[in-house]
Structure formats: C-alpha cells, structure tokens
TrEMBL record, chains A, B:
GO molecular function: carbohydrate derivative binding; glucose-6-phosphate isomerase activity; monosaccharide binding
Name of the protein described by the UniProt record: Glucose-6-phosphate isomerase
Keyword presence, Cell membrane: no
A Gene Ontology term for the protein's cellular component: cytosol
Family: Belongs to the GPI family.
Entry-linked Pfam families: PGI (PF00342)
Domain of life assignment: Eukaryota
One biological process term in Gene Ontology: glucose 6-phosphate metabolic process
Record's keyword annotation contains Isomerase: yes
PANTHER family linked to this entry: GLUCOSE-6-PHOSPHATE ISOMERASE
Keyword list, A-Z: Gluconeogenesis, Glycolysis, Isomerase
Record-listed E.C. numbers: 5.3.1.9
Length: 584, 584
C-alpha cells in the first residue's frame, strides 16, 4: 500500500483493487475498541478535566469541544491511525493542488481555489492557472455589482435595478440562500445598511408555478435583474424558470433584445457560453464558474458572489471569502489532532461506521443561520450518500448519515424529545459569543442572547448526563412517573463556540463543513464529488413529460411500458375525474 | 388480555403489566415474515396489476398508493392482526370520545373535537361538553377577526391593524406557519384577495434577538397586533419575546394600558387567565384552548384560528377545519384496510420496527407545502421519540424514526442522491392534480405544474426499480462507470395524490398525519401525547441563566457543580477574550 502513488488511490475501477478499508488492521482495531466504548457512559467521564481539555481544539477563536462525543484519547489515536492508513493528508493535498480527485467525472475539485488570494501561487488545471481565472471573475462581479448599485447600470426603461431574483436549484440555491439569510441581519461589514435594505434578493428554485408566483408577484419587472444559475445552462427546472422569468420581463417591457440584455445575467461554465448567448444574455453578463467547482461547493464562486454582491456590496462577500480562506489554510496545514474539519470528519466516521448512528443533527443557536441545516443537508448527503468506493466496489460498511436540523431554541420545541429519549442521534451545537443584534429588555434578568445561549450550554449536558431514578426520587417525582421522566443520557454531541455571527465567521463555517464532508469521503474511500444517483430520476421524468405531452396532443397513449401503479397514478392526473373534485 | 378493559390498557405503571408487544404471536409472525420480504425486490412485483390495485386506498379523491412499500397482502394481513391485538380501533375510539389517553399527564386528547360540527353529539371531559367550548371560541375568533378586518377594531392611535405577529414556539408556531405558507398562494377560498394581501402575518419564535429584529424591524407598531401563544403563558422563550414586543409597543405609543389592551391578544388555557390579565391583555382578547389540546396538535384551536383568520378571514380557516373533520370521521369509521391514516401508521411501524429503517422523508411536490416537513418533523418526533411504553417499561424494539423533508423538486437537487444510493430511507411523495397557480409559458411542451408532476411520478419508480449493469451496458455506459451508475433500487415509498392544494385538502393532510402519528404510538404502546424529554434541558438552562446573572452582577462564580467542559465553554462566553475577537 505504501508503495502506491496517490494517483493510484484515485484510479478508476478496472485495475487490481487495494483491499477494502474494513480489512485493514486500523479499521478492525476501531471495531474492537467500539465495543469497549459502548460500555462507557459520558456521565462517568465528563467530570475529568484532563479529558475535557484534550478533547478540544481551537482556530482563530472558534472553539471545538468534542468531550461529549463517545470517545477517549485512545479512540482519537485509533482514528488518526486510520487517517494515516487512508492517506488523508495526501488526499487533502491532492484535492487542494488540483489533482483530478473527482475520478468518475475526470475533474479537479478546487473550491479552495475560489478563496485564494490574488497573489497566491498558481494552481494549474489543464494548463490554466485557475487563481487568475477566479480573480478575473471576482473583479467582474465587483465592477458589475458596483455599477448596478451606483445606478450607472440600469434597466431597459431607465429604472434602478433593486430586485435581484436568483434562479437556480440545489447547489445553485441552497448555499447562496444560507449566506443571504445570515447576511440580512449583519451590520458590521455592511458598507451602507440603507442601501442594502433597498435591494431585495429572492430565490426561485422550484419548478412549481407556485414558487414563480411567490417570488415574482409583487416585483416590478422594470426594477428587476434575473440571474440564471446553472453550470451547463441546461438544468431542467432552472431553464424552465429562466424562460418563465424572461417571458415575464417581455410581457412588461416588450420583446426588444435590450430587455433580456439589461435585465438578465448568467452564472455558468464558459463551455455553456453559446447557450447563454442564444438565450439572449450578452457575454458581459456571463459570470463564469468552472468544471472544477461542484454545484454544492459553489457558494464561493460567481454563484454566490453575484447575487450576494448585488444585494450587500462586494466588500461583505470578500470578508466571507477571507473567513473560508483562513479555514482552507488551517485544513491543509494544522496537524490532525488540532485540525477542526479533520476532527469533525473523523468523529462523523466514528459515529456512523463504528457506533452505528445513522443520523446527525446540526443545531445552530442563531436564527441568522436558519438555512444552514438545509445547505449542510445537501452538502453532506449528496456528497456521501453513495453505494460504491472510488474504485467501484460496493461499500459494505455504514457511510453517509441523514443530516437534518433547525436553529436552537426552535428545535428544542420540536424534535428534541426524540434526541433526549428516542433513537440516538449525534448533535452538533453551534453557538456564538456575540450576537448580531443586542437586546436586553428592561427588567429582564439577562439579555435575550444570554437566554438563547443558556440553552446552548444546557442542552449538551442534558443529552450527555441524563438523569436517574435516584435523582427523580430525591426531587420528589411521583413513583408512577419515574420511568417516563428518566433520561438515559449518554447521547453524543459536539459544541462549536465561535466569536461572532459575521461574514468572516460564516465563511469559516462554510469551509469547516465543506472540508468535514471531504474528510469523511476520503476516510470512507468514496467519491464525495460526483452525484450519479440523481440521473435515473431525471431520465424517468423526461419520459413521463413526453407521455403527458403526447397524450394531451392526441399523439400517444399513457400506458406503454409503465407499471400498473404509475399508469394508474398518471391516468388520475391527466384524466381529471370529476368525482374526485366534488369536495374541493 | 381480552378481559382487560380499555382503560386498563392506559393505566399507569404500578400494576401488573401486560406482556410486551414483542412477545405476542402477531409481532413474532411479522418478524419472521420480514426475513422473507427482505428477499423480495420491488422490481419483480411492481408489474403485478392485482398487487398494485390491492395496495391502494382512496378517500374523497385523495389516493394513497403504497404498492412501492416492501409489503405483500400477507404483510398487510399480519399488520392488521397486530392492530387488532394492540386494540387499535378501541384506542382510536377511546381517544376520540375523550378518555384520558395521555395517562402520564392525566389528560384527554381531543384535537378531533376542535374540528367538530356545532351540532355534533356532546363530548364530555370532566363534566364539560367540549364541543360547546370549541364553538364558543371559534365564534369569538370569527367576531374578533372580522372586527379587525373591517376596521371596527383599531390600534390605540386609531390606525388599521394590518400586521399580525404571532409569538409562539414549537407547536404554537410550526403548525400555523405551515398552514400560513400554504394559504398565502391560495385564492380559491379567499373572500377578498386584495384584503388578504393587505395583511401581513409573521411568526416570532426563537428567543434569539436576531429573530426579534427580523420580525419587527420594518413594522409600524401602531398597525401591529401581537398574539402571544402559550398554553400555560409561561413558556420561557415566548414570554421573553412577548415582553420584548410589549416594550416595542410601549416605546412607540407610550405605556398607557390601552396600548397592550388594543395591540395584544393571547391564546392560552383558561387556567392561565390571571397571568394573561396581569400581563395587560384584557379577558376579551384571551382566546382559550384547553388541557386536552397538545401543543403539536393545536393548529385547529385558537392557536391557528386566530392568526390565520386575521390574515385570511375566518371562512378560509373554516374550510380547513372541514377537511380535517372529514378525515377524522373516516379515521374513526373506515375499516383498517381502507383507512388512510391507519394504513400510513401501520406502514410506518413496519418500516421502523420490522425493516429497521431509522429515518423517513416527507416530500410534498408543492412549494405551498414548504413548511409541512418541519411541522410533521415536530409532530412525529416529539410524539413518538420515546423510551418507555405507556405503562413505563423501557421499549426494547425500534420506534420513532427521524423525519425530515423538503418540497420536490428541490429535494431532488439536495439529498436525493442519498435516497437513491445511500442508506435506505422510506419516502412519502405528496402530489396534487391541480395547482394553485396555472402557468404554461408560451412555447413550452408542458405546463410548469406538469413539469413538477412528471418528477412526482418518476422518482418513486427510480427508487423502486433502480437500474442494472445489463441496462447500463445496453445504453453504452463506459465500463469503468458502470458500478457508479448502477442503482440497486428496492427503496420503498408511498404516493399520496390529492385533487388540489386548497384549504380543505390542507385540513385533510394535517389530520392524516396527526392520526398516522397516533396510530404508530398506539401500535408501539407508547404515549404519543406527552413530552417529558424536554424538561431536563429547561431545568439546566435555567441553572445556566442564573449563573450568568449572578456572575455578571458580581454575586457568584460560574463553576460550582459544573463539569469542566461546560465551565470552560461558559467562561469563554462571559469573559470575552480579546484575542478571540481579533479576527472579527
């Protein structure tokens, strides 16, 4: 194994395979060790100061406490050994220098390059220095957003462009939306709060016409710029919505080419340039991103840069990039046991593959991060919900948890009952020392942010410690309620305490989770950067669409080749039975 | 067992216990049967028309197709046998007639009564006919909302009350928000669309001061009515936010009692009446709900009625109640094998307890239902995330899946990769024949709603059927990509196809899921109506709050009795290290 080159680790299926990770001594040791850990209760170890201190790490004031994970120093040492066995550092280095680690698509994976500094060493992909490309597009975004915000660039009828509609789905939507929701209450880095408030940013993602209505119904097309986000400029939902938005602009301002030219822009690959132009969007409004940027890793490309800079000014986005860049450097250089995303990734592997926990919940104690869980859900589940290794063997070990979450304290009044008493689901608490908004209502014991954070500190202990029959007896709990009020405890969580909710630390959070995801994939020996699993559904949907069309235009029947269930459902849909509607 | 009365089934812990459900012949038969089913592939049975027809049921045009669940008719028969063994019908009847089936709190569970007709037979709880109480409050909501909407009832300074801020958390928030989001694009039952658009409804749930800012920053207090929703009027987050909102009103209009009297209302239990009045809200603005309404089952009480009627008019809410009522009657009277919520519940039990699937995803193909998954997540996970049976024995079988979801097609571009290729996660597809909004862009092959629904029809087949190496070879897939593009299939889902997204069918959906949840709990022999699991966290948070306060006011130290981890985190929070902030 040591003799193989890194590139071989990434080679595709047809040559002799390295043995499965489960066959390594390092994996087997962890399996045995997990049986010991299963007997440990967090209640018995959480009081040990040296353990608490050892199971923590810090970067630029962001503090990761993982003492409530079901681990000991020995667990971590075994995980580091597995990481070395899996050549984790080499894989990280290979990704960041532009090796084509997305082997099934033959692509580099360089979202880190999106956060490079202009004077960084070149990163060359297929003979091109991508650092230069990145900064060229960023300069273009900056200039364009400033031109719009200054009123220099206006709509076809001369009005200020104050509404920004970003049309995109999946990775072209969830990341920018998460950042937008967090920026919307961020004042520290805003150049001009009034100016930011003047601009409205909305996202149109779902192909459901109701989403179109929700997004556009109260906007004036004359004041609206529509950004179409799709790497290939072929995503079915996005392109239908783009044509819908174009029609909406035309309906208001006529079908003159200047309407699309002035009111629409695109974020797409340069290889889609012809499609963009055919659509009516001029080259100067094409803001490129590249094959080496995966959709779910694209927030830091023009996908996020353009809408967010139009709404908040480029400076705020630049601070966001700076935070991500800081974590990128940390990720590449900090030793494994001080490396926040590595630690988070190793703990993810531990919980899923060795402790058998199939789910994980992310709990930002910050309303500004209300859309973070949905973004991480996509990032993690699309990356690591796989069935084969990078070399094509069917994975026979547990990988890829279901990720979900809500902001605290809201989650506490929703699914926390299950976290405390139902199936074990490792939790990730994210809290901030300083809020975006100071509020201490007259007469209250503590400020509102303190009230929020009191819960952030309390919940992990409730999960870890639980309570016992003896405690309940001592508290005078009625005997018949004791079983119902007993908490078993021993539920793992980690706490990430960061200084402040601002653009810089949002960038950090994004990069932490991107790299956490990659670490898990590297450890599991899977390709976290492709998504073949979404192809079959697209193909079948296209078949259904064509059946609908043929049937409606009298050119075909519905049924040929369909199973009776799908045929029955489809028939109900296209032939609307009046009986079924009599209750409407 | 047959000799015991229903009431005994619900008795609390101290008397001789019935044997565990796992010890029954019915449960054991299902366990054995599940081993056979594990060998069945959906690909091999989905073509059988008789099976597809058998595995479906319909109610008022709402069509449930569960032919893609990993079941046969034999599975269903065994589940019905277990349902009889678990006295499912008797438990449903007991719940609906007002027996105190929430034994640990000694309460009836009567959300069905909230949907009663005014002339329904009395349902008596502790000597009171709750049907009368329900309709008295509904009349009060109707009168009040009409007075506000007509301008008869105005703010303290004479302005129209056009902003409605609902302050509540958990069940007092998620249900109303789900319905609000769906109503917002519903025009069919709207009395006057312009009037509805004039009113703005917002929810303030999180204690995070950023949520306060997000909710209130652009509202004029003179035009705002604040509804405080908390059964006991003591929920920590809600009451702090209520005091915050009151201060905001006072700051704008002075501390005259008329300000609170005219700008605030409460949804609370009558036993909290004194607290409501002390807060400054007059009795005529207290809209009661009752001990027999659980928070997560409260949408149909004043909790939903008041904010939704203010925003949309009472008529729309009334149609919503009618839809729920129709399902309530169906639930109580339809035979098990034709009973939609019973079928959904039995399938939930099958997937979790016999097939071992720990998660479940709900996928409304309707942007209007974007908040349904969060509501169902609370409803299901808080209800059935339990550790003991109703009689206090620790549950030693799998119960309580993790529920999550997003609207389709958005989810397809997020976590569907995992659904297709990662761990098995049963999926629930909800689609509608008719959209709220018709849109067919010129030149498009199909309407936007068709495009959406093409995906609704296609995805369940992609999950169930998958594809094979042979198919890929035939399609010319490059050999090295075959393992990556092979879909194992055999992933279970159910499809619920309903006529229309409107108030009536939204009521149906709500009741279907409420009853599905209850069925699962009845089958698992747990109490789906209490939530002791949230108590410990509250207690510990209160302790942290008091430490913060004492430390800040110089009256105490942080550390006594805390474990070193919590002490360390808390110290970081209260003593802000300047070093940690230098990157901000």
């Amino acid at each position: 194994m040591e003799m193989e080159s890194i590139r071989d680790t990434y080679s595709l299926g047809l040559k002799p395979q390295p043995k499965s990770v489960t066959a390594t001594a390092e994996w087997r040791r962890l399996k045995v060790h997990a049986r010991h850990i299963a007997k440990m209760h967090l209640r018995d170890v959480l009081g040990v100061a040296s353990r608490c201190e050892a199971l923590s790490a810090e970067f630029e004031g962001s503090f990761l406490d993982y003492s409530r994970m079901q681990v000991t120093q020995r667990t971590m040492d075994l995980l580091y050994a597995l990481a070395r066995r899996q050549r984790l550092r080499e894989k990280i280095a290979a990704m960041c220098r532009g090796d084509k680690v997305n082997v099934t698509e033959g692509r580099a994976v360089l979202h880190t390059a999106l956060r490079s500094a202009p004077d960084d060493a070149p990163i060359v992909v297929d003979g091109v220095n991508v650092v230069e490309d990145v900064h060229e597009v960023l300069r273009k975004v900056k200039a364009f957003s400033e031109a719009v915000r200054s009123g220099e660039q206006r709509g076809a009828t001369g009005r200020l462009l104050r509404n920004i509609v970003a049309v995109g789905i999946g990775g072209s939507y969830l990341g920018p939306e998460f950042v937008h929701e967090a920026f919307s209450t961020e004042q520290q880095h805003a150049v001009d709060q009034d100016l930011n408030d003047f601009y409205r940013l909305r996202f149109l993602s779902n192909v459901d016409p109701v989403d179109v209505r929700r997004t556009l119904y109260d906007l004036d097309p004359q004041e609206t710029i529509v950004i179409v986000i799709s790497k290939t400029f072929t995503t079915a939902e996005t392109m239908l919505n783009a044509r819908t938005a174009r029609q909406w602009l035309w309906d208001a301002m006529g079908k003159d080419p200047s309407v699309v030219a002035r009111h629409m822009a695109a974020c797409a690959s340069s290889s889609a340039a012809a499609r963009v132009q055919n659509f009516g969007i001029p080259p100067e409004h094409l803001f490129e991103f590249w094959d080496w940027v995966g959709g779910r890793y694209s927030v830091c490309s023009s996908v996020g840069a353009l809408p967010l800079s139009l709404k908040y000014g480029y400076g705020m986005f630049d601070r966001f990039l700076a935070g991500a860049r800081a974590v990128d450097i940390h990720f590449q250089h900090a030793p494994l046991d001080r490396n926040l995303p590595v630690l988070m990734g190793l703990l993810g592997v531990w919980n899923m593959s060795f402790m058998g926990y199939k789910t994980r919940t992310i709990l930002p104690y910050a309303e500004a991060l209300l859309k973070l869980p949905a973004h991480i859900q996509q990032l993690a589940m699309e990356s690591n919900g796989k069935r084969v290794t990078v070399t094509g063997e069917v994975v026979d070990y547990d990988i890829g948890p279901v990720d979900f979450g809500e902001p605290g304290t809201n989650g506490q009044h929703s699914f926390f009952q299950l976290l405390h008493m139902g199936q074990v689901c490792p939790a990730e608490f994210i809290g901030f020392i300083e809020s975006q908004h100071h509020l201490h209502v007259e007469g209250e014991v503590v400020a509102s942010h303190d009230e929020l954070m009191a819960n952030f500190f309390a919940q992990p202990d409730a999960l870890a410690l639980g309570n016992t029959r003896e405690q309940l007896v001592a508290e005078g709990c009625p005997p018949e309620l004791i079983p119902h009020r007993t908490f078993a405890g021993n539920r793992p969580s980690l706490s990430l305490l960061m200084p402040k909710v601002n653009a810089y630390y949002l960038g950090q959070i994004l990069a932490l989770y991107e790299h956490r995801t990659a670490v898990e994939g590297f450890m599991w020996n899977i390709n976290s950067f492709d998504q073949w699993g979404v192809e079959l559904g697209k193909k079948l949907a296209s078949d259904v669409r064509s059946r609908m069309h043929k049937f409606r235009s009298g050119k075909g029947t519905l049924s040929g080749g369909l199973n009776p269930s799908t045929h029955g459902l489809l028939k109900r849909y296209v032939i609307r039975d009046r009986d079924a509607f009599k209750h409407c």
